[in-house]
Design a protein that fits this description.
The complex is a heterodimer of chains A (513) and B (356).
Chain A: H1 3-42, H2 45-79, H3 81-115, H4 122-151, E1 156-159, E2 164-167, H5 170-174, H6 177-212, H7 215-257, H8 259-265, E3 272-273, E4 277-282, E5 293-298, H9 301-307, E6 313-314, H10 317-334, H11 350-377, H12 388-414, E7 419-421, E8 435-436, H13 437-440, H14 447-478, H15 489-494
Helix pairs in contact in A: 1-2, 1-4, 1-6, 1-12, 1-14, 2-3, 2-7, 2-14, 3-4, 4-6, 6-7, 6-12, 7-8, 7-11, 11-12
Chain B: H1 3-31, H2 42-56, H3 60-77, H4 79-88, H5 90-109, H6 116-146, H7 166-190, H8 194-225, H9 231-250, H10 254-276, E1 279-281, E2 290-291, H11 299-326
Antiparallel strand pairs in B: 1-2
Helix pairs in contact in B: 1-3, 1-6, 1-7, 1-10, 1-11, 3-4, 3-11, 5-6, 6-7, 6-10, 7-8, 7-10, 8-9, 8-10, 9-10
Classes of the chains: A mainly alpha (513), B mainly alpha (356).
InterPro entries (chain A): Cyt-d_ubiquinol_oxidase_su_1
Family (chain A): Belongs to the cytochrome ubiquinol oxidase subunit 1 family.
Membrane topology (chain A): Multi-pass membrane protein
Chain lengths: 513, 356
């Protein structure tokens, strides 16, 4: 493999891995904040127990998300330095903004939340977890703004002298229609992930306790885990609707901005009116249109998804290939000569794009559908269930939104190929602001170097994945504590100066590593 | 002042924040292998390690963001510098990344499992994760001060082994010693009891070595590689501060010693960045050097980023400062609660069921 392949594999592995943990963090931090808010408002200790239980799972997950995120910021310069030179004037700004506006808040207030249980007044401590929750979501916005610019460069011109993209309008970059569609889609998917996580684990616990048959265990299932399940399910349902609506909006936008990505996602080779939606297609790995055979199709649906009209014409891969070759070729002819080969392919890998698109939708819809089934089962007030299949389904459901997110990103990024900065043959496109992935890779970095880091990261990530799984599993199996004491200074004060828990300089910390 | 100069200074400020803040938590991490009392029972040593970790527990994560901000700011303000530096210093940066990754998860995961082998692994990760970046940041910065082999396209072509020259290795020793001293002082400042005394002793002994080694490196840097005379002021500031550290640690004035070691790190950063300017990455052939002008973003981008920095940086300083205030109390081993982590083996009970 050459440097380009290695760098792409490394970026793919580290990014997909990073994004296993990120959606859970983005969605779970607000859910934990909501649980703590319920505790704060109602004073009901059950919500404190749930806050601490899911809070621990959040922290285990948060650590690995942060750790793997550091790699992402450095990797652009390390393995993709030519990309960095070309886009730094535009792309660096949202990254720096993320660090200044969101990441500082996240890590500082997370430290305050972890260690502040017995140091901060209840209200301030609650505000800390909300600060974390809002900042993780804000973080996502800046990163998506950067990514969306790669999918659809705006607010930028090409400087012919420096040969790089230069920013003209930060407002346009931050209000790129692409990010306005991608942000709700990613955030709702993160809430779907966290909702499934909370509901799935709580459902497993509810079934387990009800099946034990002991009255006090059933009572715990009803009073502690059932509310958690309902919170999770409602989140899943709302998020599921949001994912679908925002996904539809995003798809329509992509038919316009990245038609080759969407044509490949449908395996649509020839331009078609009333294009059908393909359920199953086969082809060999030559990535050639001649070999694609559609087995099951629903007529008109792709046209409808693209434009809202069942009869509309959707352009296929073959026509788009010619369009791009002509459009980019003409521009390059007028600006210093062609830089790509005659046989350059301008559409992404058909098999990967087609299947990642379907797996994303399938796992996402599957996850959201489960919430409806579970809400139906628990529709009566206060009802709990001891059905073994329900607990097992809760556990099986945990994986679905993670898989949907992973395939979603594989689709988004692989569908962008062969470009790292996508050209846009529309009026909204910017002339000359595009870059082939092959041109973005570092030129001074040898294969041995990238092999070293690729193997190093992969092995390290493998070990960490095992440790992460064992920790999450162990803490999930431990369940909610039988009771939690209010550790806040307010509670100590209300117990009076002679109370046994009076704040004392010699008392052990309520939380320590 | 030109915006490029503003951003050169701002990046120096971000590095100062990073090295001053994460410097002490690196130091505490490095000392984890050294400071817990030898000959004490395994249980006592574990309590001391936990005490050490908890002195930096609430703040290390926020400290690390200074690095991410410095990286992001370099990308946004000086993309050529970012691209050349990160691709050229690929392997050292890879090692730093591995170190930072294992360090982050070790902090957060260490106490989650109550098991000696688990904690031993986490301690190895913390020690490795603190030593490696401490050494390598010094090596990297010393190489930049010294000048590296850049070609006409500003690409680093010197290879990996050229980075391991005597001046750079001495630079690595300087940052390591500075952070060790800084960390020992911080520990003495934040703890009480026996460990405070030992950390103070260690800081007093380390400070002399640090003064000598850092002083030698600074003079070497100034004589051989600095383009200006005014950076002698930075050398003098750092040297005075380090003398202050020696004096204050002997007198057990922990607060003053901490301020002095922070000032010494500030002096080192001012020396490094001051000797570079107007280059950001001098080349062995000066014609190929990356400067604040040929490495920078456009005026527009710099203007936007300046506004963002002007609005947000004071806020960051405010709430990070507040964190230090909230957790200002000294810790003793008595403050450390018994381990609250679980074992890997779940006990077969139905928790959540009172009386079960």
């Amino acid at each position: 493999m050459d440097v380009l392949d290695l760098a792409r594999w490394q970026f793919g592995i580290t990014t997909v891995y990073h994004f296993i943990f990120v959606p859970l963090t983005i969605g779970l931090s607000p859910l934990v904040a909501i649980m703590q808010t319920f505790w704060y408002v109602t004073g009901d200790e059950r919500w404190l127990r749930l806050t601490k239980f899911f809070g621990k799972l959040l922290l285990i997950n948060f650590a690995i998300g942060v750790a793997t995120g550091i790699v992402q910021e450095f990797q652009f310069g390390m393995a993709w330095s030519e990309y960095s030179r070309f886009v730094g004037d535009v792309f660096g700004a949202p990254l720096a903004m993320e660090a200044l506006a969101a990441f500082f808040v996240e890590s500082t207030f997370l430290g305050l939340w972890i260690f502040g249980w017995d140091r901060l007044p209840k209200k301030i401590h609650l505000a800390c977890i909300w600060a974390v929750a809002i900042a993780t979501n804000l973080s996502a916005f800046f990163i998506l703004a950067a990514n969306s610019w790669m999918q659809h460069p705006v607010g930028t011109v090409l400087n012919p002298e420096t040969g790089r993209a230069e920013m003209k309008d930060i407002g346009a970059v931050l209000t790129n229609p692409t990010v306005l569609a991608a942000f709700p889609h990613t955030i709702t998917a993160a809430f779907l992930t966290a909702g499934t996580f909370v509901a799935g684990i709580a459902a497993w616990w509810m079934v387990r306790l009800v099946r034990s048959g002991r009255p006090e265990a059933v009572e715990t299932a009803r009073t502690v885990y059932r509310p958690a399940i309902i919170l999770g399910l409602v989140t899943m349902l709302a998020a599921g609707v949001g994912v679908a609506v925002s996904g539809d909006a995003q798809a329509k936008l992509m038919f316009d901005q990245q038609p080759a990505k969407m044509a490949a996602a449908e395996g649509l080779c020839d331009t078609t009116s009333g294009a059908p939606f393909s359920i199953l297609a086969i082809g060999d790995l030559s990535n050639d249109c001649e070999n694609v055979r559609h087995l099951v199709e629903i007529p008109g649906v792709t046209s409808f998804l693209a434009t809202g009209d069942f009869g509309a014409t959707v352009r296929g891969v073959n026509e788009l290939q010619d369009d791009y070759a002509e459009w980019v070729g003409d521009w390059e002819d007028q600006n210093g000569g062609r830089t790509f080969d005659e046989d350059q392919r301008f559409y992404p890998d058909l098999g990967i794009t087609y299947w990642s698109f379907r797996l994303m939708i399938g796992f996402g819809v599957g996850s959201a559908a489960l919430s409806l089934a579970a809400l139906w089962l628990l529709r009566r007030r206060g009802s709990v269930t001891g059905k073994a299949w329900f607990g097992r389904l809760g556990i099986a459901a945990l994986a679905t939104p993670f898989l949907a997110s992973a395939f979603g990103w594989i689709f988004t990024e692989m569908g962008r190929q062969p470009w790292v900065v996508t050209p846009n043959p529309n009026p909204s496109g910017v002339d000359g602001v595009w870059l082939m992935t092959a041109r973005g890779v570092s030129t001074v970095t040898g294969t041995g170097t990238i092999w070293t880091s690729l193997i190093g990261f992969t092995l390290l990530y493998g070990v960490l994945a095992v440790a992460w799984y064992r920790l999450m599993h162990r803490y999930a199996v431990e369940g909610v504590a039988p009771s939690e004491k209010d550790p806040s200074p307010d509670a100590r004060a209300s117990r009076g100066p002679d109370g046994p828990d009076r704040s004392s300089d010699d008392a052990p910390l309520s939380f320590a590593y | 002042m030109e915006l490029t100069t503003v951003w050169f200074v701002l990046i120096a400020v971000l590095w100062t924040g990073y090295l001053v803040l994460e410097g002490f938590d690196f130091g505490v991490g490095m000392l984890l292998a050294v400071l817990p009392r030898r000959g004490a029972s395994a249980q006592d040593r574990e309590r001391e390690r936990r005490l050490m970790i908890n002195t930096i527990g609430p703040v290390w994560d926020g400290n690390e963001v200074w690095l991410l901000t410095a990286g992001g700011a370099t990308f946004a303000a000086f993309p050529e510098w970012y691209a050349t530096l990160f691709s050229g210093f690929y392997l050292p940066l890879f090692l730093i990344l591995v170190a930072l990754i294992v360090r982050v998860v070790a902090f957060e995961w260490r106490g989650k499992i109550d098991d000696d082998r688990w904690r031993a692994w986490a301690d190895r990760a913390l020690v490795f994760g603190s030593w490696v970046p401490s050494v390598l940041w010094g090596v990297a910065f010393a190489n930049i001060v010294r000048g590296v082999e850049l070609d006409a396209d500003h690409q680093y072509v010197g290879g990996f082994w050229a980075l391991l020259n005597p001046f750079a290795l001495l630079g690595g020793a300087v940052t390591t010693l500075l952070f060790l001293t800084h960390g020992a002082i911080f520990l003495a400042l934040k703890s009480d009891g026996d460990i405070r005394r030992r950390a103070g002793d260690l800081a007093a002994r380390l400070s002399i070595v640090t003064l000598l080694v850092a002083g030698a490196w600074a003079v070497w840097a100034q004589l051989a590689y600095s383009g200006t005379a005014w950076t002698w002021a930075a050398v003098a500031l750092a040297a005075l501060a380090l003398v202050g550290v020696v004096v204050a640690t002997r007198a057990r004035r922990e607060g003053a010693a901490f301020v002095a070691s922070a000032v010494a790190i500030v002096g080192a950063v001012v020396l490094i960045f001051g000797s570079l300017f107007p280059d950001v990455m001098p080349a062995l052939d000066p014609a190929n050097s990356l400067t604040v002008d040929n490495a920078s973003s456009t005026d527009y981008t710099l203007t936007v980023m300046t506004w963002v920095a002007v609005v947000l940086t004071p806020l960051v300083l405010l709430y990070q400062g507040w964190t230090y205030w909230v957790f200002r109390k000294r810790l003793t081993v008595e403050h450390i609660p018994a381990a609250t982590g679980l074992t890997f083996r779940a006990v077969a009970t139905d928790r959540g069921a009172p009386g079960a």
